[in-house]
């Protein structure tokens, strides 16, 4: 099981975004570019059915599946995806201290 946390607020926000894609079974894929370097970036992308990689780890959430990139997974230990509302609407944040 993945050690990444996706808060309820983030799940609701992402589920709303995914519902607007009009693609049955669409989820997200979480990965890190250049993991373990000073240039590491944590990314979330749409993941249509069949676009996940064979070694990705599925994380079944209430309304969609989050696919966790196997190479990035150790670097996503203790990561948190959250969504907070603010005056401008809101912001999705990803904190990955081990990236």
Detailed description of the structure:
It is a single chain. The chain is mainly beta and 99 residues long. The protein is built from 1 helix and 7 strands, in the order βαββββββ. A 4-stranded mixed β-sheet has the order 3-2-5-4, with helices on one face. A hairpin with a 4-residue loop joins β4 and β5 (65-68). The protein is globular, with a radius of gyration of 13 Å.
In short:
Helix content is 12%, strand content 34%. By secondary structure, it is mostly beta strands.
Tally of strands? 7
Helix content percent band: 10-25%
Low-confidence stretches: none
Largest sheet: 4 strands, mixed
State Rg: 13 Å
Largest beta sheet: strand ordering: 3-2-5-4
Average pLDDT taken over every residue: 93
Computed structural class: mainly beta
SS field, number of helical segments: 1
Shape: globular
What is the string of helix and strand elements?
EHEEEEEE
Report strand %.
Answer: 25-35%
Q: How far apart are the termini? A: 18 Å
């Amino acid at each position: 099981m993945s050690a990444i946390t996706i808060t309820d607020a983030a799940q609701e926000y992402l589920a709303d975004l995914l519902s607007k894609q009009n693609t049955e079974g669409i989820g997200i894929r979480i990965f890190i570019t250049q993991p373990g370097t000073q240039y590491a970036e944590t990314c979330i992308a749409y993941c249509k059915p069949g676009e996940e990689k064979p070694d990705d780890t599925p994380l079944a959430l209430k309304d969609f599946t989050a696919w966790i990139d196997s190479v990035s997974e150790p670097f996503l230990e203790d990561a948190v995806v959250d969504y907070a509302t603010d005056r401008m609407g809101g912001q999705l944040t990803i904190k990955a201290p081990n990236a």
